[in-house]
Amino acid sequence: MKDIFMMNLTVGTKEQALTAMCSMLINTGYVTADFMEEILKREQGFPTGLPVQPYGVAVPHVDSKHVIESQVVFAALKKPVVFQQMGNNQQNIDVSFIFMLAFRDPTEHLQHLQKLFLCLQDTAFMQKLNQIKNKSHLLQLINNIET
């Protein structure tokens, strides 16, 4: 799996961010053509914004049937965009970082989601996340979290 990394993504809305990220996955052949539609639809009904401190994070994902090859896309936004909070559609979250998950195997998806949630609960991780400069730095940061 070759994680896709986007620094300083400049967008005005969550839809623009999700569209840019989905487009990368579709254009590189990692997901089916309907992946974007499914991500946008899922985000409306089951939002993925997480109010972690000090930066909001979103973790959009869909069913594995839309995935051709497992992939994670990370985007650091130049300016935060508004997502709704996971589990509470009425609460807005200013999101600075997005981890879009696309996994073929549901077990693999769950394992990565659990590890990511563990990382996001670590205050030091969140502070370091804001300082990353490249993909290898991000992967090193994630791999250093104990599971």
Automatic annotation (TrEMBL):
Q: What is this protein called?
A: PTS sugar transporter subunit IIA
Q: Which PANTHER family does this one have?
A: PHOSPHOTRANSFERASE SYSTEM MANNITOL_FRUCTOSE-SPECIFIC IIA DOMAIN CONTAINING PROTEIN, PTS SYSTEM FRUCTOSE-LIKE EIIA COMPONENT-RELATED
The UniProt entry, under Gene3D superfamilies, shows: Mannitol-specific EII, Chain A
Cited PROSITE patterns: PTS_EIIA_TYPE_2
Q: Which InterPro entries match?
A: PTrfase/Anion_transptr (IPR016152), PTS_EIIA_type-2_dom (IPR002178), PTS_SugarTrans_NitroReg (IPR051541)
Keyword annotations from UniProtKB, A to Z: Sugar transport, Transport
Question: Which Pfam families does the entry link to?
Answer: PTS_EIIA_2 (PF00359)
Q: The organism sits in which domain of life?
A: Bacteria
Q: Where is each PTS EIIA type-2 domain found?
A: 1-145
